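Why do we care about 3D structure at all? Because function follows from shape, and shape follows, mostly, from sequence. That is the central idea of this module. The next example makes it concrete: a single protein chain, its amino acid sequence, and then its structure expressed as tokens.
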Amino acid sequence: MTNAKIISSGMYVPETIIPNSYFNELLGEDVDTWLRENVQIFNRRWCNENESTVDLCEKAANEALKNAGLKAEDIDLLIVATDTPEYISPSTASVLQHRIGTINSGTFDLNSACAGFVTATETATHFIRSGGIKNALVIGAYGMSKYLNKADKKTVTLFADGAGAVVLTATNEKNKGHQAGKLISKGQYAEWMGIYAGGTKYPLNETVLKNNDHKLKFVKKFPPELNPQMWSSLSIELAKQMKMDIVEVDQFLMTQININAIHETLKILEVDKNKAHTIMHQYGYTGSACIPIAFHEAWAQNKIKEGDTLFFIGSGGGLAFAANSFIL
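And the structure:
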């Protein structure tokens, strides 16, 4: 049976570094201490005035192609997972296709917020298994700095920009590639966090702009136990599908908004916390880009290797949850 295997990765973050001290001055209070102690974010990267989501995608995609030893025309499918698109329409993927020259690929954007990258790799896997394509390029991208209200302490201190990419290819190797997957949503939380203006419900107008309704907002505080409970249950489900013990997983790559949620998940699973590579410390919260960035960095640092079993677990506004597993 044809399966989908990850053969390379790439990443890009903007050059502009925003340290915690910036927010001490911006907000007139000490937020650095809270950020260090509670989420372990020390720095983050923001796009400059002339950078946008497709610029991040382009650089991450080109690195992934180079590392795969493929030409742009070898790609049959290009998916961009983002909730900070280049435009409302057309898709960011179509803009990117022209930029990087994947002239033989179909394209589309996928928005399941910060669960987007995992959802997109799950989607690409099914396209490859169908036999219709051989190579897929999947990018998780985030330009959330463009949507931040700089007076809102709840959001402006956490969110950042970046992109991570992987190339998946068809393989007939046994015990390699995609192993299991699970998607689930809790739509009752859809109005708790998001960017609610700019679409058809609340079109942009003077009132929307004046009230900053086109910016990211936390409307209600999420239960702190929600992510650990969902992430651990999704991990158990993947292990069950694979008929393996959870301790046999080599690396857990999870949404990187709060290190305590990651550690609590591994505590529930009774797994060593060193099995979850984290990148929020220097990059901030990069949404749908954080999991592929963590994957790329872990691979580059030899924390993962050929033959390892990896669990990818993402969650984002909606609330959307996505998990899948691959053997490298």
